[in-house]
Amino acid sequence: MDNPSSIQPNLNQNKKAASILELAAFKAWFMPHRIILIVIALGSIGGLINNLSWYWIPEYQEAILAGLWRTLILLVTSFITGFLLAIPIGLVQVTGPAFLAKLAQSFCTLIRGTPLLLQIWLIYYGIGSIFPEIEWLRESFLWPYLTDAWPYAFIALTLSVAAYEGEVMRGAFAGVPKGELEAAKAFGMPPFKILTRIWLPRAVQRSLPVIGGEVILQLKATPLVATITLIDTYAVFSKIRQETYIVYEPLLFMTAIYLSLAGIIALLFSYLEKRNGAH
């Protein structure tokens, strides 16, 4: 066993070495050639902003905010609903029964093997075209909702999340050490309590980095709903380009919005990973 008096100097040396590495990395960013490159980049961005035309922003700011709000609502609701569906889809592939496991696997293969745009069109133009033929449905309270593009976009994005996250959760459930589950059984915990207290939390903790990436991918997939007349962020900027005949500025502004949202999502999941890692 190591002498306790020798451990403290080793710890101090490790901390000192880490501080030296951090200082060296910090100084590396302020080397002359890096400073010159940063100044050139900032000057180029500033000149680009000054030379481009941004007069249209106040005129379309309400439409931009409304489109951004629809994008966020669609992203959050579809991902949460899809993830809730992904939990049983992933779990049944690990626990069975075999029939349901094959059914879940076939669903994931079908959704993941076909383009999301095709799925959106099949749901909107395919299933959506059946409803007008049903007379009693046209006279029901559901008709105003069935004529809107929102439910079809929500269903398509939700099914996409369910399929992709179902495979993620399958691997996460299978990767939880069996010893933890067997120990819970030995303590007399019922199966549902084992699932909710140990198996599911550990699976989610293991898959957090992948889930964060999937949320960003889902964000980048939301512009596809503009093809079925849903006015989201992408649709708003497409309208701006058509009405103002300005090409690059709306695209740059939209890029900044999506980059900002992706950055916020990445920071959020990074915080969740560190918080879960501390526990």
Can you summarize this structure?
With 279 residues, the chain is mostly helical. It has helices at 4-28, 32-51, 56-95, 98-112, 116-126, 135-138, 143-146, 150-175, 178-186, 191-221, 233-244, 248-278. The chain starts with a helix and ends with a helix.
Strand content: under 5%
Order of helices and strands: HHHHHHHHHHHH
The average pLDDT score comes to 83
Assign an overall shape: flat
Describe the structure.
The chain has 279 residues and is mainly alpha-helical. 82% of the residues lie in helices and 0% in strands. It is built from twelve helices and no strands. It has helices spanning 4-28, 32-51, 56-95, 98-112, 116-126, 135-138, 143-146, 150-175, 178-186, 191-221, 233-244, 248-278. The relative contact order is 0.11. The model has no long low-confidence stretch (mean pLDDT 83).
Features:
mainly alpha, 279 residues, 82% helix, flat
Write the layout of secondary structure elements.
Elements: H1 4-28, H2 32-51, H3 56-95, H4 98-112, H5 116-126, H6 135-138, H7 143-146, H8 150-175, H9 178-186, H10 191-221, H11 233-244, H12 248-278
Helix pairs in contact: 3-4, 3-8, 3-10, 3-11, 4-8, 5-8, 8-10, 9-10, 10-12
